[in-house]
């Protein structure tokens, strides 16, 4: 069973609820707030790095490229600019979808990868998995997706501590959840953001 604890905004006590649910149920907690993971403040486990988290980034073979601009026209994030005899690639804009490789008719693009974060694991009272996005990186979703691959199925209970808000990272955490607990605070802003989250 996967229970995600989410909130419409930060500072509502979401991580406190998530860690207490994990401890009370002897469940594994997954800190999916990869931009600012803090569940381990409560768990106090010795975290060890399990693996690096990567995003796909294209590698261009200029010897095979005809500079036809198909890849640049496909890219909705404008991460590729084709010049008469060169290609400019803006890695920070790339979503890692791999579409540029698919549309290239000349096999001039191959899949590369770029490290964007790390996955950690530890155990104290309960097991904890934590993702950490590298400073300066904008794409939290691939780190969350890689972290979620460590979720065990079956009869075990997994508590996912989601990032605040209702953007792409939160949606990635919610995907596949059996239940969602929304945490709010008794303020006009808290109620407003709770309504948006619902």
Give a description of the structure.
Helices cover 25% and strands 30% of the residues. It starts with a strand and ends with a helix. The mean pLDDT is 94. Strand 4 and strand 5 (87-89) form a beta hairpin. With 198 residues, it is of the alpha/beta class. The protein folds into two domains: 2-53 and 125-197, Rossmann fold (3-Layer(aba) Sandwich); 54-114, Alpha-Beta Plaits.
Give the amount of beta strand, in percent.
Answer: 25-35%
Specify the structural class.
alpha/beta
| CATH superfamily annotation of the largest domain | P-loop containing nucleotide triphosphate hydrolases
- Morphology: elongated
* CATH architectural grouping of the largest domain: 3-Layer(aba) Sandwich
- CATH third-level topology of the largest domain: Rossmann fold
Succession of helices and strands = EHEHEHEEHEEHEHEH
Largest beta sheet: what is the strand line-up? 3-6-7-2-8-1-9
Please tell me the total number of domains.
2
Mean pLDDT: 94
- What is the level 1 CATH name of the largest domain? Alpha Beta
Jot down its keywords.
alpha/beta, Alpha-Beta Plaits, single chain, two-stranded antiparallel sheet, 7-stranded mixed β-sheet, Rossmann fold, 2 domains, 198 residues
């Amino acid at each position: 069973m996967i229970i995600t604890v989410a909130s419409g905004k930060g500072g509502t006590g979401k991580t406190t609820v998530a860690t207490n649910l994990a401890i009370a149920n002897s469940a594994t907690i997954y800190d999916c707030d990869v931009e600012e993971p803090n569940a381990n403040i409560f768990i106090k486990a010795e975290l060890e790095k399990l693996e690096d988290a990567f995003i796909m980034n294209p590698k261009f073979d200029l010897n095979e490229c005809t500079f036809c601009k198909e890849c640049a026209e496909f890219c909705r994030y404008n991460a590729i600019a084709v010049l008469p005899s060169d290609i400019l690639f803006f890695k920070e804009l790339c979503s890692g979808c791999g579409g540029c490789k698919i549309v290239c008719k000349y096999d001039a693009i191959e899949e590369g990868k770029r490290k964007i974060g790390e996955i950690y694991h530890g155990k104290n009272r309960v097991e904890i998995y934590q993702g950490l996005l590298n400073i300066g990186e904008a794409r939290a979703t691939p780190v969350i997706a890689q972290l979620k691959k460590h979720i065990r199925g079956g009869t075990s209970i997994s508590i996912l501590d989601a990032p605040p808000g209702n953007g792409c990272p939160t949606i990635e955490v919610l995907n596949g959840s059996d239940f969602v607990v929304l945490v709010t605070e008794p303020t006009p802003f808290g109620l407003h953001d709770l309504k948006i989250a619902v």
